[in-house]
Automatic annotation (TrEMBL):
Residues 27-108 form the Carboxymuconolactone decarboxylase-like domain. NCBIfam families: ahpD_dom (TIGR00778). It holds the Pfam family CMD. GO terms for molecular function: peroxiredoxin activity. InterPro entries: AhpD-like, AhpD_core, CMD-like. It comes from the Bacteria. This is Alkylhydroperoxidase AhpD family core domain-containing protein.
Length: 136
């Protein structure tokens, strides 16, 4: 295992990126701080396969369900930093509400999974065919 940087080195880098060392990072034990910061920096702030704005909108939707007000606030504000509008944030939350409703219904009604999967495949094939026909 690689030797982690000490707290002061990591906190200096955090300050460089964020302007402060947030309290939630100050509380991370020193043995884990370097690892947690590197993960946060690369996945939360870095460019990944999913553009940052969309990752943050996913975070808003996810935490509107987990009902973590810290994470909901964090992801909403970070989404705005990456260019999301209030309307996009509202849409992400509304999408989560709709999707969770269907999840509750399908699970509560104990919908046959294999039948559902087969129907979804049929729908996908139909939509692809119609998209191809309308493209010509």
């Amino acid at each position: 295992m690689a030797i982690a940087r000490n707290r002061s080195e990591v906190e200096a880098e955090i300050r460089e990126h964020l302007g402060i060392v947030p309290g939630f990072m100050k509380d991370i034990p020193e043995a884990y701080l370097d690892f947690e910061w590197e993960l946060f920096k690369s996945l939360q702030l870095g460019e990944t396969l999913i553009p940052n704005k969309y990752k943050e909108l996913m975070g808003v939707a996810l935490h509107s369900e987990t009902k973590c007000r810290y994470c909901t606030l964090f992801h909403a504000e970070t989404a705005k930093l990456f260019g999301a509008t209030d309307e996009e944030i509202q849409e992400a939350v509304h999408y989560a509400k709709m999707s969770l409703g269907w999840s509750a219904y399908l699970n509560g009604m104990q919908t046959d999974y294999d039948e559902f999967a087969g129907e979804l495949k049929q729908i996908g094939n139909y939509v692809k065919e119609n998209m191809a026909q309308h493209a010509h």
